[in-house]
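Tokens for chain A. Residues wanted.
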């Protein structure tokens, strides 16, 4: 693999190499600009950091364990560690970002919160922090996702959020994001849009990445405790928009000896027409305010993505990941529905952990790629499988 150690972080103009930026309608400019001018300043405030870290510890339950998966390691003859984001309050990594963004929204004087969600994890995490802070919460969710992630819809409602179905396009994450952006344009003054992944116009990808970077910050000292060294040989994460991946990679981006593996959803197969493998099928384009790799037709219409996992069912990828792909800093792998589901079941059998279907994609790489016996491979277990039980039951006729 070519490892050109250039800058993999955002530059001052909001770009990762040629990807990123803020391609937004004029009506959104004041909101995005207000955030751009303030986010780094606010995040650097000692009071902000204190509150953020306190909530991550006492409310989310961080640090999340770095668990040596002994039986999985024996099966694949390598050393597999799981970063247990599934054990966070609300069941996934998404809460790291929503805690950060709700504190940001409060500092900016916003009273109304909107969000998009695919798997419902980000919606639940947003509804949770809104309840915590006493703020109004509106979540947009594709109609298809509402059906396949019913437990999370119920959770959001219990937490006091209003869930509004997105009825256009493939009625999944992309369409929910369109609706949320439309709402923000109509409510520019009092509303903060909590984007749930490392996507959107600058500064969102960078802000979300920084809030999620606690994942790799912890991996470093936890691995030092386990293995006597901070750097693994591989870090692995599934990619929808790319927030758990961005957080898992962040502190290793410029560490030459750490290999990065990004796992996308191949759906029914990369060439089946029913896929979400953006790095293979995507070309440069603009989606939801940023320039990135995007699945599109020859005349630039967005191709409807497909994956069994609602959280990976997105036609683009965050601009950091587009850059990691283009520069070959990260190796991209595509995993089918079938392989992901089997890997999820294998984790149940071998380790007693039911993973989210998104995370199962990352676990499936061990069937495709051989690692050396003394390689240390850290996999982000981004979420727990409670929300996916119905899907697992139906798939395996349990
Ligand atoms: C458990 C889990 N993992 C991964 C993802 C994918 O999102 P991202 O790529 O932003 O980490 C989701 C999205 O909903 C999710 O719920």
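Reply:
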């Amino acid at each position: 693999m070519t490892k050109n150690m250039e800058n993999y972080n955002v530059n001052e103009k909001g770009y990762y190499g040629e990807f990123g930026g803020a391609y937004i309608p004029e009506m959104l400019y004041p909101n995005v600009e207000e955030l751009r001018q303030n986010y780094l300043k606010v995040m650097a405030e000692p009071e902000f950091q204190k509150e953020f870290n306190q909530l991550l510890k006492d409310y989310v339950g961080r640090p999340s364990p770095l668990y040596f998966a002994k039986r999985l390691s024996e099966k694949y003859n390598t050393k597999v560690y799981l970063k247990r984001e599934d054990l966070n309050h609300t069941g996934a990594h998404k809460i790291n970002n929503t805690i950060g963004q709700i504190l940001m929204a409060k500092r900016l004087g916003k009273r109304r919160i909107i969000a998009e969600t695919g798997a419902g994890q980000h919606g639940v995490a947003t509804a949770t922090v809104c309840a915590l802070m006493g703020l109004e919460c509106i979540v947009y969710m594709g109609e298809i996702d509402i059906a396949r992630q019913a437990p999370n819809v119920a959770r959001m409602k219990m937490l006091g959020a209003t869930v509004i179905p997105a009825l256009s396009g493939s009625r999944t994450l992309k369409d929910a994001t369109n609706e949320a952006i439309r709402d923000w344009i109509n409510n520019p003054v009092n509303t903060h849009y909590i984007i749930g992944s490392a996507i959107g116009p600058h500064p969102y990808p960078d802000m979300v990445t920084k809030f999620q970077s606690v994942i790799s910050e912890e991996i470093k000292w936890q691995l030092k405790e386990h293995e006597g060294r901070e750097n693994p040989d591989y870090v692995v994460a599934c990619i929808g928009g790319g927030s758990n991946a961005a957080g898992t990679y962040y502190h290793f981006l410029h560490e030459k000896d750490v290999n990065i593996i990004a796992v996308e959803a191949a759906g029914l197969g990369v060439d089946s027409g029913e896929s979400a493998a953006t790095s293979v099928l995507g070309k440069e384009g603009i989606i939801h305010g940023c320039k990135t790799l995007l699945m599109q037709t020859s005349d630039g219409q967005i191709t409807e993505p497909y994956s069994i996992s609602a959280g990976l069912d997105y036609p683009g990828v965050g601009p950091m990941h587009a850059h990691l792909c283009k520069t070959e800093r990260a190796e991209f792998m595509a995993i089918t529905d079938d392989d992901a589901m089997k890997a999820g079941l294998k984790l149940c059998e071998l380790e007693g952990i039911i993973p989210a279907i998104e995370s199962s994609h990352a676990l499936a790489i061990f069937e495709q790629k051989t690692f050396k016996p003394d390689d240390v491979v850290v996999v982000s277990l981004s979420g727990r499988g409670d929300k996916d039980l119905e899907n697992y039951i139906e798939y395996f006729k349990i």
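The chain has two domains: 16-55+94-207, 61-92+213-396. The radius of gyration is 19 Å.
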